[in-house]
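Internal QA ticket QA-208
Title: Verify multi-chain structure generation after dependency bump
Assignee: T.L.

Test input:
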Amino acid sequence: MLKYKALRGTQDILPEEMPLRRQLEETVGRKMKFYNYLEIATPTFEHTGLFVHSTGADTEIVEKQMYTFLDKGGRSLTLRPEGTPPVVRTYIEHSLGMKKPLQKLFYSGAMYRQENPQAGRLRQFHQFGAEAIGSIAPALDAEVIALFLDICEDLGLKELSLQLGSIGCPGCRPPYREKLLGFFADKYDLLCANCRERHQRNPLRILDCKNPSCRRMTEDAPSMLDYLCDDCARHFQELKAHLNTLDIEYRINRRLVRGLDYYTKTVFEVVSPQLGAQDALGGGGRYDGLIEELGAKPTPAVGFAAGIERILLAMEKEDCPSPELCHPKVYVASMEEEAKRLAVRLLQKLRTKMISADTDYLDRSLKSQMRAANNLKVVYTVIIGQEELNKGKALVRNMESSQQEEVEIENLCDYLVQVLNQNQ
RNA sequence: GUGAGUGUAGCUCAGUCAGGUUAGAGCACCAGGUUGUGGCCCUGGUGGUCGGGGGUUCAAGUCCCCUCACUCACCCCA
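Actual output:
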């Protein structure tokens, strides 16, 4: 029995799974470039207070999901549970707003939340995300949404649903909240246990309950969308207009609620019907109050975060094309000491000429070496033994055609470079 | 944190209901069939404290308890 296993909710990524991840990473980087978002990276741990004051002290994430610890100086630190607060902290700390009025940034990395793991939900998981800080333009909300959908489509995902909503601003949300409380006043006893708790703390969340009876009850509950202030309503209208011009389909979700405190106005979620319970591939929205909340001058912003493992799951379910592991081009099979020394020299030369190559380090029979070459799917196998050494030549076998010919040992490398280039 | 289901070879799984020789198959891996040539085929081999611990029994992969992990769902969210 293995003494130490990967911790609950963490995952080893094996060689076969890497190509697909790399592809995703490459797609993200490429698309971000086209939309002019620049990459940044922030530390994996921060002062605990950063998340308490941005994500929100009352949120599930901060209340019970953070990996928080004291360092030797007695400071409370936390492994980042999400990417937005660190990015905003960086934006403020390095006065990025002074360098450019609008900063468009993206990141990709591991996040940590101590939840109960299930399909599409890990304790260490990976997110990429974009944050556009400095503009209130609804067109920017649309760009951020378009960017995320563009990435998903480039990866081959087809069955996606964009859920759109608005949760207002500090101006219009409190009055709406009162309205909602009024609506539930005579229904309190009919709510499920969870919702009764929500009633005290965050009544908006009742709208998000999946309990069928709560659902039915909230059907004709007032929606935030009907109580938006003029500013928020106009913003929402303009965003929808922009999405229409971009031919982006969306579904208005009158009860879309986010679990993070900093959202204002626009909220959205991209959902895959392939996925089951954890079906949100990504989500985001506007957070016009966060920068000020963290001590800088008021600055509007909008962004999204996406779950890499969830996207990977969805790609698998939709049979998206996945890149193959790459194979070396040449295998050098050799017998006897002298030939093996020659093989090592040849390998070195090939590699400096940018040709991937490998050989046998297990002192196996020629037959085994040929099998190894076959499993590696190489294009050519070079065979060097005593006979060849005597002649000063080596055999070069084309693995597909099974044709092989003798080549002067001195010319081996140049010969292989030449034939491999012809093939391409 | 709660509920249900599942843990047998590197992988996919038989065997568990009705306890009883030395725990099996396919794939993968290794070797041989050709004393120097891959794929297909044939033969053989390596590999398991049956998730872990405890209990019942003459006897436990099989029954009971605990524990850990995974899966699904609640919850939450990416």
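Spot checks passed. The mean pLDDT of chain A is 91.
Status: verified.
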